[in-house]
Amino acid sequence: MVATKKTAAKTATKKTTTTKPVAKKTTTTKPAAKKTTTAKPAAKKTTVAKTTTTKTTTKPAAKKVAPAKTAVEISVNGNKKIGTLMKEFNKQFPYIRLGIFYSYARQEVAKGGTIYNIDADKTLASVRRADSGGDISISGNKKIKTLEQEFDKVFGLYAQVCYTTKDGHRYYTSGSTDDMTLSAFNKKCEADGCKKGEWK
Fold first, then answer.
1. What are phi and psi of 32, to 5 degrees?
2. pLDDT digits (tens, 9 = 90+) for 5-23
3. Rounded to an integer, what distance in angstroms lies between the CA atom of residue 30 and that of residue 68?
4. What are phi and psi of 181, to 5 degrees?
5. CA pair distance 135, 77, nearest whole angstrom
6. How high is the mean pLDDT of the chain?
7. Ramachandran region of residue 131, left (φ > 0), alpha (ψ -120 to 50) or beta?
8. Theoretical Cys-Cys bridge with 101: which of 37, 111, 125, 158, CB 3.0 to 4.6 Å?
9. In whole angstroms, how far apart are CA 116 and each of 65, 103, 135, 160, 170?
10. What whole-number distance in Å separates Cα of residue 37 and Cα of residue 99?
11. Domain boundaries, the chain
């Protein structure tokens, strides 16, 4: 008889290991906070111009002094035309005129006769006395009588400084007026209201 060895079947208790599911570690990634850079508007660099305060001392305006007119000397020689000379004279002395006559006119004046100017287109050399000649100059500080004497001596001609009153009457200088300078007499005639002379 065969003995049957019963093998007690041990029911192996299977050790069931219940594996807990690994909790998923959920990493919540916080969204990166957007770094908002608020750009500050660039401050405008304002350059404030420094105002330099200049202390201005206002001097009272100096009175304008009209420059003295330079006296023009008129040169007289034989080549000068009588008309040119009379024009130059009248430009320099607007209230008086220069009359130039032949030498015999002196006697006519003494008689109270009428005398006439020499033709303005003639030169002094063409009408002067044959034995005369030379040069003279006319300036404002020359006396009337000196000028008239020089014309007689240098050119042998009768010269007279003339003027016209405000009433239109024409005269020659005489007496005390002959001792006045040309500039002084011209100013006197202007002050007296004499008419501006015309060289013709």
1. -55, 125
2. 444 444 444 444 444 444 4
3. 101
4. -80, 165
5. 5
6. 76
7. alpha
8. 158
9. 43, 12, 24, 12, 13
10. 105
11. 74-191
For 186, the token pair is 């011209």
Q: What is the DSSP letter of 75?
A: E
One-character DSSP codes across 108-174: HHHHT----PPPTTSBHHHHS-TT----EEE-TTSBHHHHHHHIIIII--EEEEEEE-TTS-EEE--
Residue type at 157 in one-letter notation: L
Query: At 184, phi and psi to the nearest 5?
Result: -65, -40
**How far apart, in whole angstroms, are the C-alpha atoms of residue 116 and residue 165?**
20
Q: Amino acid letter at 174?
A: S
Structure tokens at 62: 């100096």
Which amino acid would we find at residue 194? Answer: C
Give phi and psi for 92, each to the nearest 5. Answer: -75, -35
- What are 136-155's pLDDT values in tens digits? 999 999 999 999 999 999 99
Instruction: For residue 136, list its beta bridge partners.
Output: 76
Which residue from 74, 72, 91, 71 is spatially nearest to 147, judged by alpha carbons? 74
Structure tokens at 68: 């003295």
Give the chain's length. Answer: 200
User: Structure pTM?
Assistant: 0.63
Contact at 8 Å (CB) between 147 and 161?
yes
